[in-house]
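Let's practice the habit of predicting before peeking. Look at the sequence and jot down your guess about where helices and strands might fall. Then scroll down.
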Amino acid sequence: MSGRFPDRRILIAGLVSTMVWAGSACAHAASAKASTRLHPAVRHLQTVASELLRAQQRGTIKSFSAVLARRADVPAIADYSLGRYKSALPRSKKALYYRGVRTFMARYFADQSRKYRIVKTAIDKTPRKDGADMLVRSKVWLASGATYNVVWRLHKTRKGWRINDVKVLGFSLSFLQRGIFYKYLRKKHGDVNALVAALNR
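Done guessing? Here is the structure:
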């Protein structure tokens, strides 16, 4: 959304989550014989990882968007990101807003996947229950020597397990995205329609 969204340069959420997701893919693409005894949330994350590896190899917005549509709870992430402005979203624009949020994330994932090299990752196969959600911990190593501790939050929907947040170094990526949307909406005097239009350009 370069040139259209003033806060794109500070989208830390997209930057770090791309590094983590791509790294997880590299680590688990070869684990086709993963134990069926693993918690379903962990198995779901392994499936996500394999799909994200393929998306990274293609490097297109469309490929990342397809994975997000299948494996992330985009409506929940989008609703949370809108926060107190949610009531201002016209029902007729809801589907368009969700599509825009998915494209917004996918575009940044595609951009950043070309810039960072992952050398090693590890995913904890023992998740922790947190209310109705499951938390899965992981760690990623970059070629630069930097490391990140990551916690994935997944919850069960009618369609199965879906990712609805990721914490990197203790920071919620959904919370950071909400901050970006809030800043944009304040500049637009709370005009949610302007946000929907910007996300879908």
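How did you do? The CA atoms of residues 150 and 170 lie 8 Å apart.
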